[in-house]
Design brief:
The protein has 7 helices and no strands. By secondary structure, the chain is mostly helical.
Length: 187
Amino acid sequence: MDAQQIAFLDQYEQNLTDNMISASRSNQYFDGVILETPDIDDKWKEMSAAYVADAVKEIANYPQVALGWAMYMGMAVAQMWDQDWEKYASRNDIYESIRDKRGFDYLDEVVRSEILGLEGTDFKKAENMVREYSQMALDAIRHEQIEPQSPLAFYVYARSIKVLYKIGAAIWLSQLGYKMSTEMNNN
């Protein structure tokens, strides 16, 4: 991959992130500041290869699933981070343990009900939110008019699911009450 393609991918990722942050602010999912932790970011690095291996099979027929389930994984890892990170920090099979409960096709339901504990209206709201963001990512990918199944298409997809994962984590951290603070303790 040459420098021009890397610059394109960096810009694509930044634009998608900015668009999703703007949508999050408008929808009041979070205040527009992505709360990042190395713990949560590192888990994506650990699980992304296994996720991609499963999701790539779904791209042609279910592109929103192939994209959106990454957002659910971000939400799930954020929940685990809040709940008991010592328990989950050393696990390198978080994605597989979630997927294996009912298979990749039902990963969304496992995350919403078993990990996040959502029911009724909240269960449906989360589904609609992930559908909206995965459609936003799909629209961004299609807008680029990249040759399908090309190496560049793969990298655009990989950057898209990374953004969805981070947005999912940020939204869920916000739902849990975490907020970015610029105050400093001078004691």
